[in-house]
Design goal:
Keywords: Oxidoreductase. By secondary structure, this protein is an alpha/beta fold. The protein has a single domain, classed as NAD(P)-binding Rossmann-like Domain (Rossmann fold), CATH 3.40.50. Helices cover about 40% and strands about 15% of the residues. Strands 3-2-1-4-5-6-7 form a seven-stranded parallel β-sheet, sandwiched between helices. The longest helix has 29 residues. It binds NADPH dihydro-nicotinamide-adenine-dinucleotide phosphate. The site of NADPH dihydro-nicotinamide-adenine-dinucleotide phosphate has 29 residues, from helix 1.
């Protein structure tokens, strides 16, 4: 097996590519010579990023408008990615939102919004790509972006934690069913990384306290996700499916 090839020539679709972790993974994939489809609602950002990616080494980069809370938009996005590259090798199911606040203060609309994007959107995208790979007989790879909050809990993010626990179990359930179609399904469970989803939080007293509970005493740098991401997205993990890998500075093993 040539591990050096990494993502070279691979066709990858990344949801939530307009900021944070998704935009970062798009740059990593570009540096490794992939064809990158960038999907999100803010297409102005995607277009700007697409230009950057080609200069960085992407074989090609295609911005695609996507709202993961809309099933038709998901189907259209997947079809556009396949059309643009003549096929698809990897899906990175990354789009996500959080609605913070005490569970008792959350509305039904808050709960539904989080589930629509973080759980239903991830499911529908995985199923759409899974059907494509089954119907074409091509192998595929799915990397779901879960969270350490899918494995343990924290205050003020209950609906988010519920949705991410669903992503963890979905990863295992789909890995079991998709293996016969040569489709691998794994997940990353990041700890805390500064992006728009948690903007400003790490400078608050609660944020500083939280960082103090991380065994490594700091939040992660996005570049520290690169190795685990490349492992799961590439053939380096070709005998792995149903795995959930935490990348969290030891946060999950913090002392009780
Ligand atoms: P950002 O807020 O920076 O990025 C979220 C992305 O999701 C954006 O690109 C946004 O694009 C997209 N998105 C949100 N709603 C939709 C929608 N309805 N349809 C399509 N795209 C949507 O946060 P992060 O980069 O941090 O988050 C990325 C993933 O990583 C999420 O799943 C998050 O839960 C997870 N994660 C993040 C951690 C962290 O510490 N940052 C820790 C653990 C997990 P747009 O608004 O343009 O549609």
């Amino acid at each position: 097996m040539d591990l050096g090839k990494g993502l070279n020539g691979k066709r990858i679709l990344i949801t939530g590519a307009s900021s944070g972790i998704g935009a970062h993974f798009a740059r990593v994939a570009a540096r490794h010579g992939a064809h990158v489809a960038l999907a999100a609602r803010r297409t102005d950002r995607l277009e700007q990023l697409a230009g950057e990616l080609v200069e960085m080494g992407a074989q090609s980069a295609r911005p695609i408008e996507l709202d993961v809370s809309d099933g038709a938009s998901i189907h259209h996005c997947r079809a556009q990615a396949v059309e643009a590259f003549g096929g698809l090798d990897i899906l990175v199911n990354n789009a996500g939102i959080a609605r913070e606040g005490a569970a008792l203060d959350q509305t039904a609309e808050d709960f539904d919004a989080v589930m629509d994007v973080n759980l239903r959107g991830v499911w529908l995208m995985a199923i759409s790509c899974g059907r494509h790979w089954r119907d074409t007989g091509q192998p595929g790879v799915i990397v779901n972006i879960a969270s350490i909050l899918g494995l343990r809990v924290g205050s003020g993010v209950a609906s988010y934690a519920v949705s991410k626990a669903g992503v963890v179990q979905m990863t295992k359930a789909l890995a079991l069913e998709f293996a016969r179609h040569q489709v691998r399904v794994n997940a990353l469970a990041p700890g805390y990384f500064e992006t728009e989803i948690n903007e400003g939080f790490f400078n608050t007293p609660a944020g500083e306290k939280m960082v103090g509970r991380v065994p490594m005493r700091r939040i992660g740098d996005l570049s520290e996700l690169d190795g685990p991401f490349l492992l799961l997205a590439s053939d380096a993990s070709r005998y792995m499916t149903g795995a959930v890998i935490p990348v969290d500075g030891g946060h999950l093993v913090s002392s009780l």
